[in-house]
Amino acid sequence: RIVVPGSFYLSCACRLFKEHFGVQDFSFKDVEFRRALVLCEEEQQLLTINLRKRDGNVFDWSVESRSDHQ
């Protein structure tokens, strides 16, 4: 089993901010990791990254995962 580090989620969000919104300089605020993502070789995980631009340069984002056994 592999436990995916929280920095993986932040890296995904950084890439989305840059590619979809053209944002180059930003910071994260009030980041919360609710559960660890644990990967097993015999199952697949589907990751969904939700990203929404709010007022000005404020974004809401979340990452959800679901295994093929759920």
Features of this protein?
alpha+beta; two-stranded antiparallel sheet; 23% helix; 34% strand
Plain-language structure description:
It is a single chain. It contains one helix and four strands; from the N terminus they run E-H-E-E-E. By secondary structure, the protein is of the alpha+beta class. Strand 3 and strand 4 form a beta hairpin. The strands form two sheets. It has a two-stranded antiparallel ribbon with strand order 1-2. Strands 3-4 form a two-stranded antiparallel sheet. Helix content is 23%, strand content 34%.
Describe the protein's topology.
Elements lengths: L1 E3 L1 H16 L15 E3 L5 E9 L5 E9 L3
Antiparallel strand pairs: 1-2, 3-4
